[in-house]
Design a protein that fits this description.
mainly alpha, 20 helices, single chain, two-stranded antiparallel ribbon, 421 residues
Amino acid sequence: MRAWFDGTGLVLFGVAAVARIAYLLIFQPTLESYYLGLADSLLTTGVLGFGGRPSASFEPAYPLFLAAARLVFGERTLLIQLLQASVAAAGAVLVYDLALQLSASRRTATAAAALFALHPLLIRQASAASDLPLTTLLLAGFALAFVRIRDARSAAGAGLLIGMAVLARSMVLPVVVLAAAILLVRRRRLHAAALTLVALAAIAPMMARTYALSGSLAPTRSGVNLYVGNSPHSAALLPTYDLDLLEPEAYERFVRAHPGVAEHGPAFDAAFDDFLTAVSVEHMAGHPARTIGQKLMNAAYLVSPRLVPLRISGRDTRVHIDDNGAARVVDSVARSPVEVWSHAIAASLLLAGTVAGVTLRRAQLGRDAVLWAIAVTFVGVNAIYVPATRYTAPMLFVMMFYTAAAFDELRRRSEARHLAA
């Protein structure tokens, strides 16, 4: 990466790392989660799962990252979080190089990287128990590798990066198809083949394992995510409450329909996934107009200045569903005003900047096709499944690029008018 060699990268990385580490030390987010449980299982039993039982519900990349960090740092989770935050901070350098490649403007590139370094959502997520920081880094690296494709070897490198991103979060898979389609439209068939084959080779072991365990090619938590976003109660919770609160209700519904299915293990996970997928599709098909309207609203929620969900779940937060099917959330927790307003300001800036940037850059949008592939994938998949602000993190660098491009162009025009005067 050229930015590392002219000192710019070190400055950008330093700013991003300081912001993320400061947040970690001040607010001390926990790393305890099922991801850490998966990592510990990998280290103690060699099995991606829980208690020695394999699971087909999770992608392997983030648990493997945590397992490697455990080997180095042991039980010192703060050091693991410092490592994770530092790795996430490297995304600022990738965004700088990507913006420079697309715009040929150091001012645009610096502004885009600065937005990445200081965005409140990315800062909060960097040390959280989440695969999203790793997914964000891999997607930014893929986008940079894609715009630098010159031969089959560089196309294969881009394919490896997007394959690794799928191993971190399987919802990224449509980007592989869209990226290959972009290359085909550009009549670069060899590059499309190299990218696709290498990406599939990277993904294949996960798919083979998941299929052997469950009979499914994808991780078996798709069904529950589809259900909580498309149940009879989803609209009552959106956009104020966390849809994950509906998971216990989904579980109870499955148990009532399948009382003889043994709990735990891949067979249970697969049956649970298939059942909830079928229920969700039936619900959506039975209410087509309502479903389409909700999906459009979901897409709006993803870029809204309002945090979704606005209230979070605490230890005692529950959903109560009465005999008439009405859902009511009790004991939810308000977010801090700092979090609410920092997101509102950042999201408003990016939304206005993206609209301006796309408008000003409309003659060059073909060069940015890979950015659109990423944005369309995240907006589309999250609108269908679960619309939540946190899930937009891996595509925010797309909006940051257009915001920076708008800022640069408007400043250039202002300077030109000043010189003309």
